[in-house]
């Protein structure tokens, strides 16, 4: 109860980075099992793993992944519930909300709310379904509610982005003050695209699949344009500054990694939708896109670690908490 009261009285949309990170950890463990363990069609379930026949190393590895996934799911659900209560209280303070939206240097901090909720839907289908057979077996019955929820996120994401762009257009805005945390909206676009692409390839109903696919393609296109535009300004700012940002902001460099992976996976899932809408096959392109985005993500990790070597040696353990640290997670 103390935590709930603390969140409600000191709410910040960036709190949702914690629930997003917990969901991401659960999904990472699930994805490893999904592709490593032979099973039938659809998502893997706990009962698909024949624990008694596993070699020792695999038994330990899969056991650790399940042991990580289960509490991560619980933490994601609990934090999402707590943060939603704080969000509703915060939204009732109209002037505070308007003030944040109209601040071009802080309004991007609102996007983790949408990103975390998009992750919640994915956690429900996959990690929760891993532990609850009824969810996995009834996945098709969740497709229509999932499409409705995806539609709400889609509208909320584009509406919020439109307001943010309006504030930027009114200016004057010093783009030199932005850092990699400015990519929070692109991160949300990637998560919503992952959500929509999951519906598009999972739904047996062709209408649901097509609607989700069309909206996902729009989300990917806009997200990639935003990514390219913002990266141009961020790289330019860094080259002009000729020095690293302040210490609390440095971990934000890593936020580009999940963004690249999210768009890579979403593009990889899209060939059936592109063939439906435009009557051409881009399967080979999608595979190349996935490989390129993951290669770029690995390269950026190496680059960021080398660039921030002093930060990890001197400040990482001793520094106080700052929201950009979630970028490493």
Commentary on this structure:
The chain has helices at 2-9, 16-36, 56-91, 94-101, 111-131, 133-137, 143-170, 184-202, 206-241, 256-269, 271-278, 283-307, 309-315. It has 329 residues and is mainly α. It has a domain at 2-230. Helix 9 crosses helix 11. The longest helix is centred in the first third of the chain and has 36 residues, at 56-91. It is globular, with a radius of gyration of 20 Å. The mean pLDDT is 87. Keywords: Membrane, Transmembrane, Transmembrane helix.
Core attributes:
329 residues, 13 helices, globular
Could you provide a short overview of the structure?
This protein has about 325 residues and is an all-alpha fold.
Tell me the Rg in angstroms. Answer: 20 Å
Task: Let me know the average pLDDT.
Answer: 87
The fraction of residues assigned to DSSP E strands is under 5%
- What shape does the CA trace take? globular
Question: Termini separation (Å)?
Answer: 27 Å
Estimated structural class:
mainly alpha
Task: Enumerate how many helices there are, as a single number.
Answer: 13
Could you give a short account of the major beta sheet?
none
Helix fraction, binned, reads over 70%
Order of helices and strands: HHHHHHHHHHHHH
Low-confidence stretches: none
Number of strands: 0
